[in-house]
Amino acid sequence: MHSESKQPNKFHHLSLNWMTSKENKEEIKADAEMLGPAEIIMRTLVVLFLVAATSAEVLERCSWARTLRNAGMDGYRGVSLANWVCLTYWESRYNTGAINHNKDGSTDYGIFQINSRYWCTDGTRSANGCRIQCSELLTNNVGVAINCAKRVVRDPQGIKAWVAWKDHCQNRDVSSYIAGCGL
């Protein structure tokens, strides 16, 4: 049985008391009507990101390397497979659901940490070079992320668009990132 709290809870309709009386339905409707358009949009985005995050995973290094190879990334635009694996290790630790917020207000998404200002849209101002929703980069269906990374590397900056690659992979022996993978 549901016990009443001494403190008022404006979300009491979400508690264990799931009664569907007319009073409860009217109360839920009143709560929803108090939300402004911006709050409704924000809550919708949060739900979408939560749904996307539930299908995200941290990939195993060699499995990820094989996926990249099978997607034609080894040698794509002159970037070796080991460099792609190094880049994604330092960007996301192979986490397809990684999200990081930047000082400029943009956000980086997914295993490649693709930026919302230039490559995908998350409801903020974006060039959307990959023509995708940023939430599409947060699932274990990495095909969208790989295709977007291919688009990024075709840009004049190439692989240097990724700061983590410049800081941790450029001009270094990156062979250890695919060592023992049988590739």
UniProtKB/TrEMBL annotation:
EC number: 3.2.1.17
InterPro entries according to UniProt: Glyco_hydro_22 (IPR001916), Glyco_hydro_22_lys (IPR000974), Lysozyme-like_dom_sf (IPR023346)
Keyword list, A-Z: Antimicrobial, Bacteriolytic enzyme, Disulfide bond
Signal sequence range: none
GO molecular function (one): lysozyme activity
GO biological process: defense response to bacterium; killing of cells of another organism
Superkingdom of this protein's organism: Eukaryota
Annotated SMART domains: LYZ1
Family statement: Belongs to the glycosyl hydrolase 22 family.
Name of the protein in question: lysozyme
Protein's organism: Acanthochromis polyacanthus (spiny chromis)
